[in-house]
Design goal:
Elements lengths: L10 H15 L13 H34 L13 H26 L10 E7 L4 E5 L4 E4 L10 E7 L7
Parallel strand pairs: 1-4
Antiparallel strand pairs: 1-2, 2-3
Helix pairs in contact: 2-3
Length: 169
Amino acid sequence: MTVSGGKVPTRAGVAICALLLLYISGCNATPESMAPVTVQGRAISQLFSLVLAVSAVVFLLVAGWLLYIVWSFRGNQEPSRTSGNRRLEVAWTGGAFALLLLLAVPTIQAMTTEDLPSSATLRVQVIGHQWWWEYRYPELGVVTANELHLPVGRNVQLDPESADVAHSF
C-alpha cells in the first residue's frame, strides 16, 4: 500500500495525527463562560485576537524562512554572509518598529478606561486572606466569603486589600 509520495505512514504518525485531531476538535473559539460582557472585556478580547494573529503571521514568516534556508543549504554549501548590509538591517529594524507601533495603538486604546460616575457605581471591598477571599458590599451591608456577586448593567468598583498576605486579584 502506498500513499502519494510513495511512503507508508507509520503507526506512530497515524496515532499522532489522530491525537492532534482529537485535541483540536475540543477547541472552541470563545466558550460561553469566557465570553466578554463589558466594553473593556470586549476591547481586551479583540486586542488578544489581533496580537495572536500578528504573532501567527510573524511565526509563519520566520519558520518559512528558516525552512527555506535549511533546505537551500542542506549540503556542504555555505551561505553567503550578509553582515554590513545596511538596507537589510534598516528593513528588519524598521519592520519590527512598525509592528510594535501597529500593536501599541490598539493596546493603548484597549487599556484606556473612562471615568465612571461615582453615584451609579457599586463599591465592593475585596479582602485577601491567607486561604480565602472576603467580599464586602458597604452600600448593601452584605459580606460574602469566596463568592463575588455583581449586578448586571451596573458599574462596579473593586477595592482590593489584604488582611495578612499579598495576593493578586
